[in-house]
Batch of 2 targets.
Target 1
Amino acid sequence: MGSSIDVRAEVVPAVAVPNHGARLGRRRFVDRLARWVVTAGGLAIIASIAGILLFIVAEVWPLLRPASVTVQSRVASASVAGSAKESAVVIDEYRSHVAGVSADVLRVYELAGGTVIAERDLRPLLGSSGPIATGRTADGAGLYAIAGGRIAVTRIAFPSTWVDGKRTVSPSLGETVVLVVGSAIRAADVRLDEEGGVSVAAALERGGIVLLAREVSTNEMTGETKATDTRRVIATPAAVDHVLLDAPKKTLVASFGAAILWWADASSGAEPERVQAPAKVTALAFLLGERSLLVGDERGTVSLWFPVRQEENRFELTRIREFPGVSEVTAMSSSPRDKSFLAVEKQGRVVLHHATSERTLWTGHPGSGLASIAWSPKADGAVLASSEGMLSLAIRNPHPDVSVKALFGKVWYEGYDQPEYVWQSTGGTDDFETKFSLVPLLFGTVKGTFYSLLLAIPLAVFGAMYTSQFMHPRLRSYVKPAVELMAALPSVVLGFLAGLWLAPRLEEGFPALLLSVLLVPVFVVASGFLWTSVPRQQRKRFPVGTEVIVFAAAIIIGAWFSIQIAPSFELLVFRGTFRTWVTNVLGLGFDQRNALVVGLAMGFAVIPIIFAISEDAFTNVPANLTSASLALGANRWQTVSRVVLPAASPGIFSAIMVGFGRAVGETMIVLMATGNTPIMQWNPFNGFRTLSANIAVEIPEAPYGGTLYRTLFLAALLLFAMTFSVNTIAELVRQRLRQKYSEA
């Protein structure tokens, strides 16, 4: 019997095997992409910061560039029989025409071709064949010539018109006014006014000074003009070599030998003040504004003098600073736009100085036989009278009033009793002496940061310590977000509230604040003792950490009690109002918007940053450290103060430095809550000005590319460098602390 075998084929469905290779490839691609994105983002941030830094440096760099002076053109004097080279010159504002006066002829030249545009013979007017001296009027509006006892003054104008888009300058010679002094003139200073009047201070060969004035008045009804001459003689102890008269015809300065005579009020008839220069005086000139005197001597030194207030409100002409030279100073000319001046030396050297910054901006030898020098009205050039003719100089001097000393050193400014640090970028007149000291702004930045951190560091660090180590976790989940939410408040809102709401209330209620600082800690400590005196069985009914409610109540009660007794405290301790006591007894200034207001407002803004980072530092301390400490018998406070706090110190230090950077760079709170006065006093009851606030205040009014504009960028660079340096040092300290406590 045969057997049969039933063979059935069973089809097993195919099972998809996971493609681990493809999935791993996708993961690697995503990882690489994420790494590239993160790297690109980091590099973009670094590039952005570097770009900002480079932009700031590029804006500051022109401040360091020196002045440049080049000879633009040379004009040979016209060869007229019997006439000498021009010895006094003026130039128009476009530096296209120049006028010069020689011993007997006045000429106007076109600089482009050297051709004579106008000419006037002065010999018939002067009526003398003797030696003739020439000069330029102090205001630069004319030229004069002296022969014997006569002075011939000619006003020179350079009117310009535009025809078919092209400027045309048409020089003109005004009427030549001849004033008769009556005696041989040794030196003179001549001024013209806009009405056509002339003022002369003439030093006589035989001694004495004659003050002549021709005032011209116009009848507005008939149009007639009337000239009135006045004359006054002032005695001098010797024949005067140089004489100067200021524009108001009040201050008179003269010199002979090394002696300088200064009449503070030439019309009063009082005796002049006499001071002694270090060497024989060879040139005199007023600086722009005519409050300072430039004295050149035979050593080549130019010294700056101005009156300084002494005791009993008496002013004394004082030598302030000196600019050394090589050879005798023969001529000087002050810039019509700033405190720069040009000095010509006997050996042919021309030097460009700036009086305030004490900088020697340029030195050169443009020609030989230099007789006189004059600035152009725009201060972008000058003209020299020399034995070779006349030289037109192009001057590029955009930032003369900036130097290391002007920015960071004490400078003796006009009208000040002593050298000081001053920031004052603008004034009420065109001859204002700019004051660009950054020291008051640096001081204000440190002062504002100090008072804000004085409040923020203790509250934020100890608050973070208590929140992370003692507070109940459920309550902590509400407190920490609430504190961090404080950082969302715009600083402009805090500044607005501080300036308009907090400042007047703090002025009235400072005694209450002072009492709160003294009494609230007492109430808190007392509440702690009361809480610990409660039987333990009763305290166990409350979760651990909820005692903060007791402390909060103690703070509220302490603050309320301080406010209630503040009026009696103020009357008893300060014998009146606190503000009167500060000003009369302490002799301190008191401004409503002061450093305390900024400290409270900016401290409120800094607290969330320090609190958040410090709380994370406390929380991230390994639990095994605290457990080991508690297991060894230490109580909770000992564990926190001796174990947790040192371990968290790197993070706390970082928090403080981040808060420092926030306070240093704060703008709106400082701008709105202080008087923005750049003063240097630690007095908490007056204001200050910080670098950031100064930039915000000044930059809208700063001319683009001007000195103020670039100085503000320098302030920004200092702010950048300050925060970068502090953060770098902080990071190094943090890493060292971290290494120290990790090894321990």
Note: The two ends are 93 Å apart (CA to CA).
Target 2
Amino acid sequence: MPPDLTFERALRQRGCLTVAGVDEAGRGAWAGPVVAAVVVLPDLPDLPYVDSKTVPAVRRERLAAHVRATAAAWAVDEATVAEVDEMGPLRATHLAVHRAIAQLGVAPDAYVTDYLRLRFATLPQPEVVAPARADGLSLSVAAASLLAKTHRDARMRAAAVDWPTYGFERHMGYGVPAHRAALRRAGPCPWHRRSVRPVAEIAAASGAPRPDAKEGTA
């Protein structure tokens, strides 16, 4: 079954007037930022089935534009490579999500996330429903996944212009064999996460000097 609004409608029936879907992209990558998106959809969204992981890139971009045009509210933000290295990918993901929420312009009463158990400093705490693989269940989460992935892909394509050796535009910083081979040849660049064991091991073995950063917030 395609994702729908079952979770969102159940939360509204419990008195949550504004329900947001949350998802991230890049948490398990070897390079680049962690990106989070938050989306509030209208009650009757004009949104086809979306799967950010399987649809072709051109269609993903069109769908992301449609989400931005039709969502009641949306926001995207990120945690940098340095922040991922400092605090780890899970805490960096939470940081990126809260940054996106701060930009949303509305204060949701509840969130549906892809197994991400959010915590808030404010009281009362918004309700959080966090089923596994929520991007295949919740239309709001699927929409957020689409925005997070397209935003991060654009960031990785931009990084590939400055560091073409690594093929970021093809694998988006994930640990595929071609990426590992490029790392072994050239050593890591500023967009690589030194806290990731394969990157750290290759950096130590290569002894390659770290190139100067061309973007201040990799």
Note: The radius of gyration is 18 Å.
